[in-house]
Amino acid sequence: MGLFDRVSRVVRSNLNAAVSAAEDPEKILDQAIIDMQEDLVQMRQAVASAIASQKRVQQQHDRSQAEANTWQQRAQLALQKGDESLAREALVRKKAQAETATTLKAQLEQQNTTVDTLKKNLIALESKISEAKTKKDMLKARASAAKANEQLQNTMGRMGTSSAMGAFDRMEEKILQLEARSQAAAELAGADLESQFAALEAGNDVDDELAAMKAQVLGGAAPDQAALPASEAPTAAPQDEAVDAELEALKSQLDQL
């Protein structure tokens, strides 16, 4: 492969890539419909021209055929009048017109075929344009939806990496920390309150146990002694007095030391 061919291929590939990148589906579809409408106008003009030509050939054929018939009648009239040379001249003219009519008839048949073909192509093109318009609307709707989705995705992508979203993430983390600290403080306050109530409950247990013990001690005393009046309480025994005296002596000795 020569250098020129390689360069030409590179240039064409770059141009094709640039054109493909610049193509807007909606604009391309609209332009395609415009092109098809222009083709339809040209097709209608061609059909109209073919029909006009068909009518013109038909008129020429009819006129030539009528001329041939006229010269046929004139030839008969000349023979009836006994003018054979005039009849011959009329037959010559009749033959020429008949040949022209035959030629025009063949041309007319060909023209009829052409007109029929053009009419069928015109109908087919109109049908294709109608289908293309329907498909264009559908494709444009899909293109619009795709563009909107692409724009949304790009926006979401920018939001995910933007500083604003980063600030939201940081603030959320701080709020989570504040909530955790608040919850911990609440738990600590609750624990302190629980300990205070536990102490109170423990004190009540001790008091209850002490009261029960007092009741048990008092309940074990002699009934007769508990029932005696205060004036009739028994006096201390002499032995108890001696013990008390000795105890007092010991206290005095300790004080002198």
From TrEMBL:
Coiled-coil regions listed in the entry: 91-188
Concerning InterPro entries, the annotation shows:
PspA_VIPP1
Q: Could you tell me the superkingdom of the organism this chain comes from? A: Bacteria
Q: Which family does it belong to?
A: Belongs to the PspA/Vipp/IM30 family.
**Pfam families reported in the protein's UniProt record:** PspA_IM30
Keywords (A to Z) from UniProt: Coiled coil
Q: Which organism is it from?
A: Almyronema epifaneia S1
Per its record, how is this protein called by name? PspA/IM30 family protein
